[in-house]
Amino acid sequence: MTHDGEDTAAARRPDVTGLRLAMNGQDQQAPPAPPRADLPEDRSQAILEAAKQIGALFKRAGHPFALAGSVAVYAHGGSRYLQHDADFCVLPEDAEAVAATLREAGLAVLTPPEDWLLKTTCHGQNVDIIFALAHEPVTKDMLDRAHTLPVDSVLMPVLSPTDLIRSLISAFSEHYCDFGSVLPVARAVREKVDWDAVRAGCGDQPMPAAFLFLLERLNVIDPQEGQP
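The chain above was modelled as a monomer; its predicted structure follows.
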């Protein structure tokens, strides 16, 4: 899974409009350059369209799955500002069948060096098909806990807020601890998360524990019972 937070797009320097010499000897502005075709007008909408199409394929094929990542956060009421990809969780034993469904729909399926996901592209957007979250296999219980929610008008199972947060902060380590990307996610879904379950699942690990402490100090969540 791509542990998509919501990055702020880098500001682009506007193109400097060129000048040409007019027939009367006075400078005039050249006509503006046409928009670049490789930049979608709305990247977030393109990611949502990809998520809707893949979700519809999985529903028709009967594959157990759950939407994850930033699109899942959006479905639970978070920001619509999506700048990465769409993520789906499937059972490890269903990976080959899911890949076959994607290929039958005309989508290329790539097998990256990581052995916990497959990749495809839809509407020009990257889509990750994940069968392990934070080094733990996706399970039937996890998919059973998913909430059926509208994703831009298409109903599909969405990873529960508790499982979503736990998967994000369980991935923190000495080599990856981007608290800033997960903090707005925690703020967006905090009232829907079973924080005791999150602490039980990963609160004894140093980096997740540090993030939970940060949430407490920022008054995003209440301190653990029995602590000041």
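Residues 2-36 have pLDDT under 50 and may be disordered.
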